[in-house]
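Progress report, Aim 2. The chain analyzed during this reporting quarter is listed below.
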Amino acid sequence: MSEHSPHTLSAVEDGQPAIGSLPGETLFALQGTDASTFLQGQTTADFSRVEVPCAIHGAFCDVKGRVIADFLALVVADDRIILRLAADLADLLEAHLAKYLMFSKATLLRLDQAPLGLIGSGAMELLGASHTPAAGQLIELSQGWLLGLETHIYLFIPDGENTGVMTGDVKHDDAFQESWHAAACLRGEARISLATTGKYLPQDLNYDLSGWVSFDKGCYTGQEIIARLHWRGTPKRRLYRGFTELPCPMPGAALRQADTDRAIGSIVNAAVLSDRAILLLETTADAAGNKLVIQEADREVLVEEQAITFSEMAHHQPE
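Predicted structure tokens for the chain:
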């Protein structure tokens, strides 16, 4: 969470610890001797420097440098990498990568298992884990992998046949989904969906400030435009947190200045936080601390004064 934010996560930690399904996420496994090499040439992340096992964020981009999909990668072996991304982008990304995979000694498989989210100080007990991972720490369990996202917020990635989480403990209700998405917005984790794919440069989402983009790794799809902006230009827009009234606006909704019709940004993510909506939005620096208007809803959005950066996860060894 941004050090400038006055907000706490109490709104998503109240009540009993919970483990819940994440139907908006999907998992792929990239397998083969070229798994890391393939991602090195297709993503913003540097896979040449990671240790096994580790977790790393990044993005797939098109030739214009626009983000197709963000991802979380678990490098669990030299020849096996598990990718988590938005479920509604699975078909699109699979088709995009197919034309490159035909020249690689790697295969991309969509997994049947889905990731699970854990919220609360006692959530580890629901999973049967004896150790609580710190933020950014990846630990191996008999059922898969557990990643600490922040205090009392964890992501479980099943791996293998032994995924023995008791289904009776897993929540499938809207309340859990709202808490999970609100926590992501609070910590500034901008996620791409089908509604926003191809709309943003990594810098618009602060991926460069969060460590999701390597600027010394060499060539990858979209690298020339992304690197040119980094070394020779200044991003016109950055990621900010904002708040508005319920109901939640849709991702991709345009934002304008309150006194003009000029577009000045858009909503990237939105979630319910108590009695209002919390937003991640990309906009210009002069909009910070001011009110914008959602174009279609004609509703005000209060933008926080500081751009928000997702805390980069270190590449931890499992314990």
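The mean pLDDT is 88. Helices lie at 10-13, 35-42, 90-101, 123-127, 174-186, 223-232. These observations will guide the mutagenesis work planned for the next reporting period.
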